Amino acid sequence: MAGIYIHIPFCRQACYYCNFHFSVSFRNMDAFQKALLKEITMRSAFFKDALHSEASEGIDTIYIGGGTPSVLGTSELSKIFEQLGSHFFLENTTEVTLEANPDDMTVENLLFLRQGFVNRLSIGIQSFSHADLRFLNRIHSPGQAVESVKNARKAGFDQLTIDLIYGIPTLSDTTWKDHLARAVDLGVPHVSAYALTVEKKTVLDHMISKGKAPPVSDEQCARQFDILCGFMEKHGYLHYEISNFALPGHFSKHNLSYWTGVPYLGLGPSAHSYIQGKRFWNVANTSRYIACINQGSVPADGEILSPAQELNEYVMTSLRTMWGCDLQKVEENWGSHALKDLEKKASNYLQSGLMMEKMRHLVLTRKGKFLADGIAANLFTIK
Ligand code: SF4
User: Fold this and answer.
1) Which of 8, 164, 317, 334 has the fewest CB atoms within 10 Å around its CB?
2) Ligand 1: distance of its center to the CA of 58 in Å?
3) How confident is the model at residue 309 (pLDDT cuts 50, 70, 90)?
4) With a 6 A CB cut-off, is 167 part of the ligand 1 pocket?
5) pTM for the complete prediction?
6) Which architecture, in CATH terms, is 2-258?
7) Every domain of the chain and the residues it spans
């Protein structure tokens, strides 16, 4: 099976922390939509050829992300799905997720989406408090955040997830617990929670360096991550990936496919693809994307991953999940030398309690999860 990701590069307002590719000008919207429909046509044959036998089972998951896909009108979304349906086999597609911001989620829009192709919503709530939303420059209010979840339920969305951010300087530990309790009370079956990260060249980075905003505290992030893990586990959510918590039966299939090496095709500016050891990415510039597609070529760069790079990716992504890094798989795919090297590097973390070994899998403990990226980097094979 395989997945498709589509990047919609438009937002109504720029959040201060964001470093995704997007524009708040909708000047290129029509031209982008036409280019996207063309790219679907252009890429479909290539993707099917590259996948060989996997293509016969068709596309399992589709994820429309961004940017803010919910800025698209219902007729624009219909055209995208029609185009996908005429170029890919979608009869076995089980999960179609659309990212939406609370301010776009009228009952009318949601009913259209539910009656159409979308069966899972990812709502960009980030916070239920005014102070945090102002700090992040989010466009919606706490009231709209709550309403959006209620409206999604009314429209029949059982599969839905919300994004929340912790570590915001305006967010106290008590308020963070309230946000988590709010999510649980609303019956949200899946929560993605991220530490606020200050990415280079974002407005937030600039504000902090000019002293116009307080810096983000690592201690606060660590404390609030601990609160998050404890609270969600207590309420029956499985911590199945570092930033993802789900009630049983509500894992994101699409995200799981990223972490387990399932091939996926990325469409739209800045979208990434992975097909059998090759990774490629479209240009992160909407005007150039449109111009190239109109001239008949997809503007993408790529690389073929070396065995060492594939192993490093496997270690990094598997350690982020609750299933951990499968040592037998490492030996089978990369050899006994790679296994010994990994076991040697992991031994310190096993002794210090940041990692444990369960049925021949290396699994991070809660403390280890907060340090996952650094731990994975220290386990990397260098070649
Ligand atoms: S809505 Fe999402 S993609 Fe758009 S600016 Fe905010 S964080 Fe970035």
Assistant:
1) 317
2) 31
3) very high
4) no
5) 0.95
6) Alpha-Beta Horseshoe (3.80)
7) 2-258, 305-383
